[in-house]
Write a structure and sequence with these properties.
The protein is mainly alpha-helical and about 525 residues long. The protein has two domains: about 1-45 and about 80-275, MFS general substrate transporter like domains (Growth Hormone, Chain: A), CATH 1.20.1250.20; about 315-523, Growth Hormone, Chain: A (Up-down Bundle). About 70% of the residues lie in helices and about 0% in strands. The chain has a three-stranded antiparallel sheet, covered by helices on one side. Helix 7 runs antiparallel to helix 12, helix 10 runs antiparallel to helix 17 and helix 16 (about 320-345) runs antiparallel to helix 21. It is globular, with a radius of gyration of 26 Å. The relative contact order is 0.11.
Length: about 525
């Protein structure tokens, strides 16, 4: 029998898959905690500078006038006991505060590298053991961050942690490949909610250990100890991956394990096993056909100037497909800037830091109701309107006084989260089946590039009406508005449209003449 039939017998969703949901949810929450912790360990603390031993002092608020402190300061006096890498590593003179910004960007730079490389690794070596190795390295790097003696070792450990964060994707992959496809959308929503829970855990940890950022990292590392044990001894390999690479007996064993925990009979599970002779013939036939395909492709390319083999460059083959691909990448870029810009800049919002951070985490939950409206109003329309409004709220934050600031920030982040959820539905519907993974990887890379740049944007000061704390909010807002305009003008609607199967379908979808052609085909 084929794999889907065997999975149906084992149980499409039961106690075995519920255990996998717990594993995947834990890793998603853990990554939410890891991403959010920089808000609290990298706080700019007001300080004073003493001219001499007990003589006098003058304030440098929010690390201003740093070019003077190295000449006249004999002692730095920080205004409160809040733990921060700025204070422990004395990142206040000679523009050293930029190193704290580099540490945040290093985390997301490593995440980008792992996103581009770990996909092929998991296809070759499976999901379980690569994720187990990454989780162990993440535990080691997080624990080592606790004892980092200087800012450079801190940056190195944050880089390692960022690279290992892809482990949550591999654990989620094990889950989605061991359930029926009908459950995958609900599981992805659950995964997003667990990311929010991770952010809330980060806020609570920062509040309890406000005086020590090292204890915050130690608290972050400890939950991985029991998880590593359960991952090695309880987390199964993806049965679907085992079946796809020809390890039929192991795939069958894992399916029987699922059936056992789901309380279903195991004897009926019997995956189709090709015999050794037929396997050899199939392999020879595959190699022969591959050589013929390569030869034909070279001849076809020489005569026509185009290739039959697909690559990511095919998404940019024509002007219209190039524009559509760029629009999708820009949408991901802008969403990341608005979403994480509001998170990272929460310290500049009026009110209690911890309460504001908690509120900004909780607003991700109602955003789900906004994203559900795409089933009625369409993906494109809901997306660009939500992004416009989110950008408007983001732009208004620094100009609104008092407690209303957090209301604007919450509204902006809620809508930015909804935009993120819409992109996870809208973009896969646009890319052709053969290039869907490549297209989504491009969009993910654009998102990570925005995250790499965001910490530097937070330090920008354009002067004039956009001086001080105003600059970052306006840059995030501009990015969101610009992306909204491009999606409105050049984006496409995919609601109730047929699946895009080939690169030609994608180019047809991207063409401004698609409506005329569709009407012609219907006649």
């Amino acid at each position: 029998m084929d794999f889907d039939s065997a999975l149906e017998i084992a149980g499409s969703f039961g106690p075995a898959q519920l255990m996998l949901v717990i594993f995947a949810g834990f890793m998603s929450a853990y990554n939410g905690w890891h991403a959010y912790i920089v808000v609290f360990v990298g706080l700019d603390i007001d300080f004073s500078c003493a001219d001499g031993p007990g003589v006098s002092k003058y304030p440098f608020q929010n690390n201003s006038a740093l070019d003077k402190c190295d000449e006249s300061c004999q002692k730095l006096i920080f205004e409160d006991d809040t733990g921060s890498i700025y204070k422990d590593y004395v990142l206040v003179c000679n523009n050293q505060q930029i190193l704290a910004t580099v540490s945040t960007s290093a985390y997301w730079s490593a995440f980008l590298i792992s996103t581009l490389t770990c996909g092929s690794i998991s296809e070759k070596f499976g999901r379980k053991w690569p994720s187990a190795i990454l989780v162990f390295l993440q535990f080691f790097s997080t624990l080592a961050t606790t004892f980092a003696p200087d800012i450079y070792s801190y940056i190195a450990m944050r880089f390692v942690s960022g690279f290992c964060s892809i482990s949550s994707y591999l654990v989620m992959l094990i889950l989605t490949e061991n359930v029926s496809k009908q459950y995958v959308p609900k599981l992805e929503i659950t995964n997003q909610l667990m990311f929010v829970i991770g952010q809330i855990a980060c806020v609570l940890s920062a509040f309890v250990f406000e005086e020590s950022w090292r204890k915050q990292f130690l608290t972050l590392a400890l939950p991985l100890i029991p998880f590593m044990f359960f991952q090695v001894f309880l987390l199964p390999e993806s049965a679907r991956w085992l079946e796809s690479v020809g390890r039929i007996n192991e795939a069958e064993y894992n399916l029987k394990w699922i059936a056992k925990y789901n309380g279903n009979p195991t004897k009926a599970i019997n995956l189709t096993k090709p015999d050794s002779e037929s396997s050899l013939l199939l392999r020879e036939e595959h190699e022969s056909s591959k050589q013929k395909d390569d030869s034909f492709n070279q001849k076809y390319q020489k005569e026509t100037g185009t290739s039959l083999k697909m690559s990511v460059l095919d998404l940019f083959r024509t002007l219209h497909s190039c524009v559509l691909t760029a629009v999708n990448m820009l949408a991901w870029f802008a969403c990341s800037m608005v979403y994480f810009g509001l998170i990272f800049n929460v310290k500049k919002i009026h009110g209690n830091l911890y309460l504001n951070s908690l509120l900004l985490s909780l607003v991700d939950v109602p955003s789900w109701f906004v994203s559900k409206s795409i089933n009625r109003w369409g993906r494109k329309t809901v997306f660009y309107i939500a992004l416009f409004v989110a950008s408007a709220f983001c732009a208004g934050v620094p100009f609104i006084g008092g407690s209303v600031q957090i209301v604007f920030a919450m509204a902006g982040k809620c809508l930015a989260t909804a935009c993120y959820s819409i992109l996870f539905v809208h973009c896969p519907e646009q890319f052709p089946s053969s290039m869907r993974n490549a297209g989504m990887s491009l969009c993910s890379a654009a998102s990570k590039i925005a995250l790499i740049l965001t910490p530097f944007v937070l330090k920008m000061n354009l002067g004039g009406p956009f001086s001080g704390d105003t600059t970052p909010f306006e840059i995030f807002s501009f990015a969101g508005c610009f992306a909204g305009v491009t999606v409105c003008l050049f984006g496409v609607e995919t609601k109730d449209k047929p699946t895009v199967e080939t690169i030609e379908d994608y180019e047809h979808l991207a063409s401004p003449r698609r409506k005329t052609l569709d009407e012609h085909d219907s006649l």
